[in-house]
Amino acid sequence: MKLTEAPEIVNWPETHYVFIEKVGPFMSSAPEAWNSAHPLVPAIAKHNTITGYMSLYKRGPKIYRAGFSLAAAPQQLPEGLEYTSFHGGKFSRFVLRGPFSDLPAASERVFEIVSEKGIDMRDDFCIEHYLTDPDNTPEDQTITHILIPTA
């Protein structure tokens, strides 16, 4: 697994975000959320500009949101999607290079590093920001930012 072990502090901007939310263990809720969200992309893109794919999640309670950042507040969303203007803020960013199948282990390692380094987390959503399209990018070159809300 190719994961940076030294986080970079970044400021995430306010983001227009549409999503499907699932609650429960991430190993089941994450795939369920994405399996519901992906088919909605053409309908979202018909009236909106999608600027990225990302998930927001909280470990306790286990809330997982699979969704898309938009260039502006959404117009004519398909049924089943929720919208929020995610406020962003200060985050500790870790970078994973490799397949999405490495994400569970990478996330666990990130939280170990946060604990080991005494990084002060604020009560907010963590972010997985998918920088590359797995349909057009070899699996070993896929890049995901894992961002931890930092006080």
Distance between the termini: 28 Å
The quaternary organization reads as: single chain
Secondary structure category: alpha+beta
Which CATH class applies here? Alpha Beta
H/E element sequence: EEEHHEEEEHEE
C-alpha Rg (nearest Å): 15 Å
Write up what this structure looks like:
The protein has 151 residues and is α+β, with helices and mostly antiparallel strands. The chain has a single domain (2-149), classed as Alpha-Beta Barrel (Multidrug-efflux Transporter 1 Regulator Bmrr, Chain A). The protein contains three helices and nine strands, in the order E-E-E-H-H-E-E-E-E-H-E-E. Strands 1, 2, 3, 4, 5, 6, 7, 8 and 9 form a nine-stranded antiparallel β-sheet that branches. The two termini are 28 Å apart. 27% of the residues are buried. The model has no long low-confidence stretch (mean pLDDT 96).
Layout of helices and strands:
Blueprint: E1 2-3, E2 8-12, E3 15-23, H1 26-37, H2 41-47, E4 50-58, E5 63-70, E6 82-86, E7 89-97, H3 103-117, E8 126-130, E9 143-149
Antiparallel strand pairs: 1-7, 2-7, 3-5, 3-6, 4-5, 4-8, 7-9, 8-9
